[in-house]
Amino acid sequence: MSRRRTWTRACARTGCPERSHVEYTARRELAGIPTTWLCRKHDKPDENMTPDNREITTVLELHPRYTTRQRYDGTLGQYTNTPELLGLFWGPENDPARAFNGIVSGPGFGAEGGTFPPGTRLIVTARIELPTPVTEGAPC
Ligand SMILES: [Zn+2]
Predict the structure, then answer these.
(1) For 9, which of 20, 43, 77, 108 could close a Cys bridge (C-beta 3.0–4.6 Å)?
(2) Cα 83 to middle of ligand 1, angstroms
(3) Alpha carbon of 11 to ligand 1 centroid (Å)
């Protein structure tokens, strides 16, 4: 049995203390993993909540996705390609190419795409409420 090893990468942002730990057995397992990495805070700074950025709203839209089925049309005497609904998937507004999730969920909610009509918008808001007064020793 091969021994598991850990490869540690530092966030590429200068001065950031965050680290990523990747476990592997053989070096070939690391082949597709980028050597540079950004922590979540630096990769998606607009999504990072802080004492100064306490509310974020994200909107997803339900997009229909289709596949093509080849069917024999007896009237025409030939095969034709017919679009067929594959399903309804959540993704960014006006960007159906990036809609991949039939179900989305988070803390306290879940939404199955098949339950709603295409074009439905899912609006998720996260809001931080600080204690009053702010507790001493808080990192902010
Ligand atoms: Zn970082």
Answers:
(1) 20
(2) 44
(3) 5
Token pair belonging to 37 = 């990495």
- From CA 50, how far away is CA 52, in angstroms rounded? 5
Q: Looking at the DSSP assignment, which residues form a beta bridge with residue 41? A: none
The pTM (predicted TM-score) of the whole model is: 0.70
Q: What is the pLDDT of residues 92-125, one digit of tens each?
A: 999 999 999 999 999 999 999 999 999 999 999 9
| Cα 43 to middle of ligand 1, angstroms | 7
DSSP 94: T
How big, in percent rounded to 5, are the helix, strand and coil portions of the chain? 10, 45, 40
CA of 18 to the centre of ligand 1 (A): 5
